[in-house]
Design brief:
oxidoreductase, D-Amino Acid Oxidase, Chain A, domain 2, single chain, 2-polyprenylphenol 6-hydroxylase activity, FAD-bd, 38% strand, UbiH/COQ6, FAD, 9-stranded mixed beta sheet, globular, 315 residues, alpha+beta
């Protein structure tokens, strides 16, 4: 049986950020995940559809754990301004960070870029053991330790187990922590879009009768990641349109703010739901990230990946 101070179930952004944040603390940390990325292969040429809007607090955390320089050396874009308007009224707001003394408001970063940097950092740390690919088979909760059995029957002991294993957390369910769930009755359509006019590193969002459309500026000045929140029926209709038809509807809905639009990726849709764990901790267990709370929304396709507040842990 291998003994650790902390076993983290889930090698996503939150789980790995926590593991990297604990390096140098004297704690022995293990990360268990079913997948191990191929870090030897280059980053795909086309931007990924999963992106995150990283705010200043998360930027500081990523600096603190020593991965920020690696991230910014890859594909990132600092956005300097925001524009939000309502098509059905005169309501609008627009501002730039420089007006308030900020060099930028945040960064739009592909999740794959963040994940690669965290994996590389974790692999280099002598305090972190990566148990991948592997999954949890069983957990027994003791007074002073938790006892974890993996799918290959390896056994681990830990003073604390952290559930960072997804919105449908097996650990949360195994610990019988109830969940509040609600359906927003909207779906999000995501895609990468090329625009005739440069985005000028401004994040834009328009409210219209059927939903909300957001353009998140990517590293290429003519590429944006869109998140379009609409009814399930409208999402299905938009997905079925030809590229030419979709481009016309998209540009019109966006009031031609960036000129003509051209979809450059597949179009994916997913339901927008909310989940909230009734408790964030149990005997020798702590929940993190989307395990404790999850709300998929236009601001989260990405959105802030629950980094803030993960600089301290007591075992």
């Amino acid at each position: 049986m291998q003994s650790f101070d902390v076993v983290i179930a889930g090698g996503g952004m939150v789980g790995l950020a926590l593991a990297c944040g604990l390096q140098g603390s004297g704690l022995r940390v293990a990360v268990v995940d079913s997948h191990q990325p191929d870090l030897d292969s280059p980053l795909p040429a086309a931007p990924g559809l999963r992106v995150s809007a990283i705010n200043a607090a998360s930027e500081r955390l990523l600096q603190y754990i020593g991965v920020w320089d690696n991230i910014t050396a890859q594909r990132v874009n600092a956005y300097q301004g925001m524009e939000v308007w309502d098509r059905d009224s005169f309501g609008k707001i627009a501002f730039r960070g420089e007006e308030y003394g900020f060099s930028h408001l945040g960064h739009i970063i592909e999740n794959e870029v963040i994940l690669r940097a965290l994996w590389q950092k974790a692999e280099q740390s002598s305090d972190i053991t990566l148990l991948c690919p592997a999954t949890l088979k069983n957990v027994a909760w003791g007074e002073n330790d938790a006892f974890v059995t993996l799918n290959d029957d390896r056994q681990l002991s830990a003073r604390l187990v952290v559930g960072a294993d997804g919105a449908q957390s097996w650990l949360r369910q195994h610990a019988d922590i109830p969940l509040t769930f609600w359906d927003y009755r909207h779906h999000a359509l995501v895609a990468t879009i090329r625009t005739a006019e440069p985005h000028q590193s401004v994040a834009r969002q328009v409210f219209h009768g059927e939903g909300i459309l957001a353009f998140l500026p990517l590293a290429d000045p003519h590429l944006s990641s869109i998140v379009w929140s609409v009814s399930p029926e409208e999402a299905q209709r938009l997905s079925a349109l030809s590229n030419d038809e979709f481009n016309k509807v998209l540009a019109s809905t966006f009031d031609l703010r960036l000129g003509l639009c051209s979809v450059e990726s597949e179009r994916l849709t997913f339901p927008l739901t909310g989940r909230y764990a009734r408790s964030f901790a149990a005997q020798r267990l702590a929940l993190g990230g989307r395990r404790r709370a999850h709300r998929a929304s236009a601001g989260r396709a990405g959105g802030e990946p629950w980094f803030y507040g993960r600089r301290r842990i007591g075992v």
